[in-house]
Specification:
This protein is α+β, with helices and mostly antiparallel strands and 100 residues long. The chain contains 4 helices and 4 strands.
């Protein structure tokens, strides 16, 4: 089964810096961010995965990424790092929250 991920990264050097993205390969995307290949994240590397949500529907993953990048989604992201009330509506395959 193929998965699509909406993820939130947290800068290890600037813990108040977050990045929201979409990918089909979470591990390779994190490596790309940490190697400075993304101009939006290169300044605050290294990054760690704070939260990753897997979907089997590509469009739902993209829609969730768009929501998290919207003004209301950013407010939610900053205040609460658990999205259970939104996730229930999207019905992802699984939800992973990584705390380090």
């Amino acid at each position: 089964m193929k998965f699509y991920y909406t993820y939130i990264l947290e800068s290890e050097n600037s813990p108040n810096r977050f990045y929201i993205g979409f990918t089909e390969d979470l591990e390779s995307r994190l490596k790309s961010h940490n190697h400075g290949k993304n101009p939006h994240t290169s300044k605050y590397k290294p990054w760690r995965i704070k939260t990753a949500i897997a979907f089997t529907d590509r469009q739902k993953a993209l829609d969730f990424e768009a929501y998290l990048k919207s003004p209301s989604g950013r407010t939610v992201t900053k205040k609460v790092m658990t999205f259970s009330f939104v996730i229930d509506k999207l019905k992802p395959v699984f939800f992973v929250r990584i705390q380090t």
